[in-house]
Each structure stands twice: as C-alpha cells, then as structure tokens.
Amino acid sequence: MKDEKREFALWAKLHSARLSPEMLNVASILDAIDATIAQLPESEQLRCAGEALLQVAELCGLHAQVLITEWEETYRDPIVERGFFTDVVRQTMAVDLSDLMEPARSRQRRTKATGKPEGSIAAPVDKAAVLAMVEQMEADDQEAQKQIIFATAHSEDMTQWTAAIAQWLQTAPTLPVSITELSDGLEMP
Q1: Which residue, of 76, 108, 120, 133, is most buried by count of CB atoms within 10 Å of its CB?
Q2: How many domains does the chain have?
Q3: What pLDDT shows up at residue 116?
Q4: Is 41 left (phi over 0), alpha (psi -120 to 50) or beta?
C-alpha cells in the first residue's frame, strides 16, 4: 500500500509538471523517480522507471516548445499600421541628367571597298600533270637521300674502324662478342 502511494505521488508530480511545463524542474523529478523506484519490488522497478523516463522526455520536449515560443514572440517584428511608413519611404524618383551629358559626336560611316576582283592565280590543272609532278618530287627526294648515304659512306675511314675493332677483340675477355658489347666497348654510336 505504501509503495502504491509513492508511485501515485510520482505520477501526480509528473502530471502537474505536464500542466505547467514552463516551471519544469527536471532534477527534482528525477530525485522523486529514484526515491519511488528504490521502494518498489525488483520486478516493478524497470517498468516504472521506463514509464517515468518516457514522461520526463516528453516533459522536456514540452518545455523546449514553450521556450521556443517565448523566444519567437519576444523577437518577432512589430506590427505597424499600413500608412506608418508613408512619410518616410519614397516609392519613385525621376532625375533629369540631360544637362550633365555632352552631345554625342557624329560618327563617320565606313565605306565598303568596292574594288573589282583581280585575276586569280588558281586555275584548273590536269590530273596527269599533278601525278607527274608528284612522281618527279619523289624521284628527286630518293636521289637526294642516295647522295647523302654515299657521302656518309665515303667519309668513313673503314681501315680505322677495322683496326679499332681488331684491337678491342684482342683485349675482350670472352669470345664470341655481341654487337651491343662491341658498340659499348668502342664507344661508337
């Protein structure tokens, strides 16, 4: 019976806090929950604590809503009459700047060049003539390449290269020798 009275007192306190959430004192309610739960049998403690904490959470939500509403009402823009700003605000304005501007200078129009077209250097050419010209350019290019190769080959001193290779082969540690090793040993390109 005594436990039921304590539990009833807790629910009454939570109900009164719900009626006036702006006066919510969470610490005193949590103390009352602790005192009430300590007196209950172990099987009822979790049920009672869960219900009480759920109601405390709802009370905190109500308290927050009250605080937000008070804040919004405090800082809301004031409501003024419709004609309150008529003497202060100007709706339209007209300014004549014509006295401040210089007259625009007249522009001369560009005249288009009406020169007559002169003779074109482009003319139709026969296909056979173009092909003959391309073949002649290729033949000249091949002949020029041959001349460069012969000039390089004749400027090389083959006896000097032969002597250098023979001398290097005498000092080479192993035989046979690859072309890469020979090139590296002679420091040739």
Answers
A1: 133
A2: 2
A3: 64
A4: beta
